Amino acid sequence: MAQGIIENLITQLMKLPGIGRKTAQRLAFFILNMSEEDAKAIAKAINNTKERARFCCQCFNITDAEICEICRDEQRDRKKICVVEEPSNILVVERTGSFDGLYHVLMGAISPIDGFTPDRLRITELLQRVKDNGATEVILATNPNTKGEMTAQYIRELLKSFNVKVTRIAYGLPMGGDIEFADEVTLSKAIEGRREL
């Protein structure tokens, strides 16, 4: 019976990205040896996240309120909008401490072969924010790969009719890489060295 419980936990852990059978097995036995209090805290955090997490109505970051903490922060420069592909990208940029503006999450990148056409992304909402908020700079921080470049070029073309400076993060990031896996120093340099498109 105990073997079935452990096997079920291993199977569930393998559903996480990058977790194979060996890692899932190690994690399952680690959880088994944790204090009951710590194990329950992890389970509670997962439950709370699934029950309360939602998207910010302005930038589409993950939050537990209608408007996220970053959008509510009056100290941030409301004239700069950093456009990223996924909410997880915001965490990485924020860790650098080099950006004080607002964000806009596209919820993906243009990839017709995968069914991600521009109308499936939050591009219309971005254009509306730029128009309504009088943004002076839009920083395109999409991933430095084919999809990210295609998305950045598409948005740049749409923003030509606006009176806004459009910049692209510098290539401190390797081509073909993902922002989510960049270290703070590399990403900080990429933001500092952004260029106008």
Explain what the structure shows.
The chain has 197 residues and is α/β, with parallel strands linked by helices. The protein folds into two domains: 2-52, Helicase, Ruva Protein, domain 3, CATH 1.10.8; 73-196, Dna Topoisomerase Vi A Subunit, Chain: A, domain 2 (3-Layer(aba) Sandwich). It is built from eight helices and seven strands. It has helices spanning 2-13, 21-33, 36-52, 69-72, 87-96, 123-133, 146-159, 184-192; strands spanning 54-55, 62-63, 77-84, 101-105, 137-140, 165-168, 195-196. The protein has a five-stranded mixed β-sheet. Strands 1-2 form a two-stranded antiparallel ribbon. β5 (137-140), α7 and β6 (165-168) form a beta-alpha-beta unit. The model has no long low-confidence stretch (mean pLDDT 90).
Give me a quick take on this structure.
The chain has about 200 residues and is α/β, with parallel strands linked by helices. The protein has helices spanning about 1-15, 20-35, 35-50, 70, 85-95, 125-135, 145-160, 185-190, and strands at about 55, 60-65, 75-85, 100-105, 135-140, 165-170, 195.
Broad CATH class of the largest domain: Alpha Beta
Biggest sheet: strand arrangement? 4-3-5-6-7
CATH topology of the largest domain: Dna Topoisomerase Vi A Subunit, Chain: A, domain 2
Helical residues, percent? 40-55%
Q: How many angstroms separate the termini?
A: 62 Å
Query: What structural class do the secondary elements suggest?
Result: alpha/beta
Number of helices: 8
CATH architecture of the largest domain: 3-Layer(aba) Sandwich
Biggest sheet details: 5 strands, mixed
Q: Assess the beta-strand content as a share of residues.
A: 5-15%
Which residues sit in consecutive blocks of at least 5 with pLDDT less than 50? Answer: none
